[in-house]
Amino acid sequence: MMNTKFTKGKWEIFTKKQINDGAVRYRVNEGKMSLLEGIANAHLIAAAPDMYKELYELRSSLLGMIDCGIVAEQHFDYIERKMMSIDIVLAKARGEQC
């Protein structure tokens, strides 16, 4: 996987109000959201490195399938659109796009 500047993980839920990236504990609920929303956000943050990795690998696999001729021609446009969407999401995660 490419070099990224963000923490690779492993993020984990430390308590109902904290998440941990292995070095630093971060508070999830500072009163601006419900505790349930804070916990849900903590789970999303904890899963983010894995989701990034899976999307990155999926994009590489799709490109490989096209290059090897495994994908039928009538599906090229759809797959190219999905690859562009994946590129946008990955760039956003790296802070390259808002």
Structure at a glance:
It is built from two helices and three strands. It has helices at residues 35-67, 76-93; strands at residues 12-15, 18-20, 25-27.
Describe the structure.
- This protein is 52% helix and 10% strand.
- It contains 2 helices and 3 strands.
- It is elongated.
- It is mainly alpha-helical and 98 residues long.
- The mean pLDDT is 78.
- Strand 1 and strand 2 form a beta hairpin.
- Helix 1 packs across helix 2.
**Rg from alpha-carbon coordinates:** 17 Å
Q: Could you state the order of secondary-structure elements as H and E?
A: EEEHH
Contiguous low-pLDDT stretches (5 residues minimum) are none
**Overall geometry:** elongated
Oligomeric state of the chains present here: single chain
Give the class from helix and strand content and strand pairing.
Answer: mainly alpha
Number of helices: 2
Q: Could you estimate the helical fraction of the residues in percent?
A: 40-55%
Span of the ends, CA to CA: 22 Å
How large a portion of the residues is in β-strands, by DSSP E? 5-15%
The description of the largest β-sheet is: 3 strands, antiparallel
- In total, the number of strands is 3
Mean pLDDT score: 78
The order of strands across the largest sheet is 1-2-3
